[in-house]
Amino acid sequence: MSPRALPHPATDEITLEAVLHALADPVRLRITTMLAEGHEDMACIAFDLPVTKSTTTHHFRVLREAGVIAQHYQGTSKMSTLRRDDLDALFPGLLSSVLSAAARQAN
């Protein structure tokens, strides 16, 4: 792994408990929703979140370590992508159900 590579769980290492824990937080759910709405490869600074920069970093790390998102560096920006294919393969319908429930709750 290069010095700028970020650790991610392999698909078979992603657990339901970790995913549910990551998605249970409103800020992390908001990040996931934004990525699901087609904002692929989005820089962390592009998210308008109601928390400090250090807290934002924590939320992205939890999502990455749970296997919900993948992150990579593009220049000096850390880019995030939703791991929808991996999550759908492991837990069919889970992500769609959670995102639908979040949308209903937001309205």
TrEMBL record:
Pfam families: HTH_5 (PF01022). InterPro entries: ArsR-like_HTH (IPR011991), HTH_ArsR_DNA-bd_dom (IPR001845), HTH_MetalResp_TranReg (IPR051081), WH-like_DNA-bd_sf (IPR036388), WH_DNA-bd_sf (IPR036390). Keywords: DNA-binding, Transcription, Transcription regulation. The keyword Transcription applies. The keyword Transcription applies. Residues 8-102 form the HTH arsR-type domain. One of its GO terms (molecular function) is DNA-binding transcription factor activity. PANTHER family: TRANSCRIPTIONAL REGULATOR, ARSR FAMILY (PTHR33154), TRANSCRIPTIONAL REGULATORY PROTEIN (PTHR33154:SF12). This is DNA-binding transcriptional ArsR family regulator. It comes from Longispora fulva.
